[in-house]
Amino acid sequence: MKKVFRIMGDTLTMRPLRKFIKRKFEEIQIDHKFRHVPKFDKSVEIHKKSVLIIEPHFAHGECLPGWTKYFQDLGYAVDIFMRYENFAEKPFCRYPNPSRIFTGSLPMLKKWLGDKRIGEYEVCFFASSIIWDFLPHMHFTDYLGFTPQGKLGYLFIDHAPNMFFKQYNEKTLVRQNRIFTLSHLPEMPQLNPHYFGEFSKNKKNQKTIFLAIGRIRNDARNYDPMIESIQELAKSGKDFVVRVIGSGKMEIPTNLKKYITHLGRLDFPKMYAEIERADFIVAGLDPFCEEHHQYLVGCTTGNLQLSLGFLKPMLISRIFGKHYELSDKSAILYPDNELLGAMESAIKMNDSEYVKMQTALQLLADETYGRSLANLKSAMQSDHKTGIKTNMALMCKTYIKNLPQLKILKESIDAYNIDKISFYIVAPAKDLEQIKSAIITGKEDYEIAAMPEEPILGGESLGSGWLDQQVVKLKFYKTDLCNFYLVLDSDSYFIKDFFIDDFMFDDETPYIVCHEGKAGTLLNTKFGNTSAMHEKEQFIKKFFGRKGKDYRFLTSPFMFSSAICRTLDAELGAVHCIRSCSCEAAWHGEFFLKSGAKYKPTELFFEAMVYQKKLNLWRKLKITSNDISKQYLGIVIQDKFLQEHRYEN
To answer: How far apart are CA 256 and CA 388, in angstroms?
Structure first.
């Protein structure tokens, strides 16, 4: 037993130390190997009107010439921070006007970016937002512990928005015009780096040369259809070869070795030479491989850049090709994995047809370049603030007794209101001055106002604050301040950046909380919590004669339509509705469904902590505010049942 504990102790104490020493020794070795490359030392002076491109990823070096050209074409001088791994592969080998390049390790880049001279650049451009040196993968600014900024701030490239967009809340960067991706996506502007330097535009070879480029891994490429196609082409005596570039092991059947050559991973001078002499690029993307679906929802295959940059048509499955704006004029598109016919077409293609395809590729490359350059120019001229005009507002009906909770809500709006949505507070007239002095600072960058409830009620009080506040919510349309409003209770607060499109599908179509509430019902049943609210919702459903499933329109916050509330009040009377059944959300929701107005159903905007038992369960499960923010915009701490004002992890 002692021996076991000794081994465990040695393992726990020595292994991390050995790994640390090994890593430091490797860093010393690589620093020595690259000791002669330029470093960002004290002698470096920052040129006027210059930008700093930072590539923190150990790959992605092929994109650097493209980023550089965009900035140079806009009239900026360019400096580059890159890692040893990228520098060793010579990404600027064909670039006619290279920039100053400072090369170091990842810790060196961190040190350099903390230098006060960084602020002299016009902008800091991060050529990758995520670094893969750690597990789990890390946002580069998290690694740095700060965000380096130039005079105009910073810009980011996200190579895989499908993987990291929500995780790192990059919607804020989109709103601020600070982030790009390589593909042409509706939710993020494009900046595609397909310039690699000067190259020769060769004619099609008599012996067709196919080039397959990329890691030889199932999650990145599926070369099985290519091998099967080569088997068939070999039988027919077609004149062609396939050259494969990429790390990994490739099993080549013995009878195909005269057709297939695996070159392994190449540096950029050698790879570009291979691309230049080739005729076509085989993408190897498989529509039936789940891992490859990432290339349809954000990730961009590097083959697209190479195809556009060297005018080499791709052989690519149609679903991927269409996603990348390719057509039958600029690529050879084929259904599913039916690559054989595409390779036969490529081999048969004559010089005239090949030149036409290159011409179509050039048009696409020019269009992509122009769009990308315009996007970058727009970002460089932007003040990176949104202030987007909207026809919606935030609304909170409150009382002076709720002032502590209201302060928390207001602070969260100050912190996370990216689109500068107006915020209106409604309270009894006698409480207004105290609320204003405690809440409104005058430094808000969005419109905020506090107003009396009495004109909204119009003398129709039901004699209960709880009932009157529901009437006020339904009659807020009378202020004529907005077409739609998010009804917030003071015992709720935001926990992440929020935007207009979290609540509005378009200018006329709100997201309405409308769900069956099965999970909540199950949980409440197990906890023994009883509520008459479900019965109230069923009553209102029957009042309107709606058939079908029972829907829940709670819990707050919820979106109200001024037009719906105005019509509801005119036809039924908001006061009469609440007097007969006190559930303002259900009255609005069922009337909305009856009206036929446009809407989009949604789950709850906020996670609702209504009962102490649920709060205790979430803590027992170690669910943090950060975990909740992955799914919800905020948290409701029901002050009727809970004494706390915040969800403490």
So the answer is: 60
- The DSSP secondary-structure symbol of 419 reads T
Q: Mean pLDDT throughout 477-487? A: 97
To the nearest 10 degrees (0 to 180), the angle between helices 268-277 and 302-310 is 60
| More confidently predicted of 111 and 644 | 111
Element (H, E) at 359: helix 351-381
Residue ranges of the alpha helices (H) in 243-387?
268-277, 302-310, 318-323, 339-348, 351-381
State how far the Cα of 455 lies from the Cα of 462, in Å rounded to an integer.
15
Question: Which stretches within 118-216 are classed as H helix?
Answer: 140-144, 161-164, 171-175
Token pair belonging to 631: 């799914």
CATH number of the structural domain 50-157: 3.40.50
- Please count the other Cβ atoms lying within 10 Å of the Cβ belonging to residue 509: 14
Q: In what order do the strands lie in the sheet with 634-637?
A: 492-494, 634-637, 606-609
Q: For 553-610, what is each residue's pLDDT tens digit? A: 988 999 999 999 999 999 999 999 999 999 999 999 999 999 999 999 999 999 988 7
Q: What is the pLDDT of residue 409?
A: 97
CA angle 264, 270, 272 (to 5 degrees): 110
**Residues listed for the chain:** 649
CATH 3.40.50.720 is the classification of domain 392-637: no
Q: In this structure, what is the dihedral angle of CA atoms 166, 167, 170, 171, given to the nearest 10 degrees?
A: 30
Here the tokens at position 86 are: 């990228």
Looking at the domain covering 208-379, what would its CATH class be? Answer: alpha beta
Domain boundaries defined on the chain: 50-157, 208-379, 392-637
Task: Please state the φ and ψ torsions of residue 585, each to the nearest 5 degrees.
Answer: -65, -40
Domains 50-157 and 208-379 share a fold: yes
Q: At a CB cut-off of 8 Å and minimum separation 6, what does 507 contact?
A: 391
